Amino acid sequence: MKIAHYGRLSASKVAPLDHHSVHGAPQEEKRCSFITANSDPVYVAYHDEEWGVPVHEDEMLFELLVLAGAQVGSDWTTILKKRQDFRAAFAGFDAEVVASFTEKQIATISSNLRFDLAKVRGIVDNAKRILEVRKEFGTLDKYIWGFVNNKPIITSYKSCRKIPAKTSKSEAISKDLLRRSFRFVGPTIVHSFMQAAGLTNDHLLHCPSHHSLTN
């Protein structure tokens, strides 16, 4: 799985871990423990090359916010496999284009993706909110990263059981997003987004990705 599959710019990706195989026991022990021998290669590649890597492109931030919400009630592997479909449906997550979607387009997207109609409407509404944020802050990037003083939060968890579903920071971001009328941005979804976009590095201490992202 090449990083180009995800479409990140070079500033928002890391080199794949130097493992001979996705399924070898020694490699699994090094990664975060939620990656197992049964993990789908798509999910493994996402963990190795994307999860926790700082993102500063507005389109990618919008995409990850959408995917973080989409995986609720599903799982990351399923959503990652539909990622290209989401990109095609939502114009590469260009907020200006998505904000102009009509009800007919919304209904078509919901049907084609087999994705909840209310959630599609929420994505379109969020695109409009992003345009408002840009008017105030210049970019979505400046707004979002301002919550962490433009520096990733580095955690030191030794067990996946210790990683919280939400934090005081995700609650604060969620509260402000809701104040701005964003939808589907509860603190748990926001924390998942923070992990995906690299605002927080929640890789376990023993995981090579934790070290590569902090050095």
From TrEMBL:
Which biological process terms from the Gene Ontology are attached to this UniProt entry?
base-excision repair
List ligand-binding residues for Zn(2+): 32, 47, 203, 207
Q: Which domain of life is it from?
A: Eukaryota
The record, for InterPro entries, names: Adenine_glyco (IPR005019), DNA_glycosylase (IPR011257)
List the Pfam families hit by this protein, alphabetically: Adenine_glyco
Q: What is this protein called?
A: DNA-3-methyladenine glycosylase I
Q: Which UniProt keywords apply?
A: Metal-binding, Zinc
Q: What are the GO MF terms of this UniProt record?
A: DNA-3-methyladenine glycosylase activity; metal ion binding
